[in-house]
């Protein structure tokens, strides 16, 4: 899952302005502008950007941007049978997600990269394998 960084390296390395952050703060790829150079896939410290569409265009989770723009939650959140995935407004300290992050002591992965990811994990004693701090 894309960490939806405030400072995404995948966007800053894109020479073709294909990587961008939309008005909702969602990191996405404009497939019409992407030339498939793969710089963004190499720049992602979380190793979640990949080459889709037969290896010709960069891809990654965009939180089902079309659903979010309509005021709905991403499909992964909607269909999670254990309700382990939660989606909400991090900028609102009164939101459910902000309260849960505080209550559970949830943290983002790889803080040392200073990308300020917006995906948080609760009950982690350490980063998962492959995500060394």
| Shape summary | globular
Secondary-structure class: alpha+beta
Question: What about the largest sheet?
Answer: 2 strands, antiparallel
Q: How many β-strand runs?
A: 4
CATH domain class of the largest domain: Alpha Beta
In CATH, the topology of the largest domain is named Alpha-Beta Plaits
* pLDDT averaged over residues: 90
CATH architecture of the largest domain: 2-Layer Sandwich
List SSEs in N-to-C order: HEEHEEHHH
Radius of gyration over all CA atoms, rounded: 15 Å
Low-confidence stretches: none
First-residue to last-residue Cα separation? 17 Å
Oligomeric description of these chains: single chain
Q: How much of the sequence is in beta strands?
A: 5-15%
Read across the widest sheet, the strand sequence of neighbours is 1-2
- Put simply, the count of helices is 5
Characterize the structure shown.
The structure is a single chain. The protein is α+β, with helices and mostly antiparallel strands and 133 residues long. It has 2 domains: 9-62, Alpha-Beta Plaits; 67-113, no CATH class. The chain contains 5 helices and 4 strands. The chain has helices spanning 9-12, 39-43, 65-69, 75-79, 96-104; strands spanning 19-21, 27-29, 50-52, 57-59. The strands form 2 sheets. It has a two-stranded antiparallel sheet. The chain has a two-stranded antiparallel ribbon with strand order 3-4. The chain is globular.
């Amino acid at each position: 899952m894309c960490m939806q960084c405030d400072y995404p390296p995948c966007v800053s390395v894109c020479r073709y302005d294909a990587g961008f952050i939309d008005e909702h703060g969602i990191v996405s790829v404009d497939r019409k502008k992407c030339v498939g150079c793969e710089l963004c896939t190499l720049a992602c410290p979380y190793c979640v950007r990949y080459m889709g569409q037969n290896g010709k265009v960069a891809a990654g989770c965009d939180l089902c941007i079309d659903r979010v723009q309509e005021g709905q939650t991403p499909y992964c959140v909607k269909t999670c049978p254990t309700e382990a995935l939660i989606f909400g407004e991090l900028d609102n300290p009164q939101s459910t997600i902000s309260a849960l992050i505080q209550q559970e002591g949830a943290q983002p992965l790889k803080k040392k990269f200073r990308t300020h990811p917006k995906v948080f994990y609760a009950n982690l004693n350490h980063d998962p394998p492959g995500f060394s701090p």
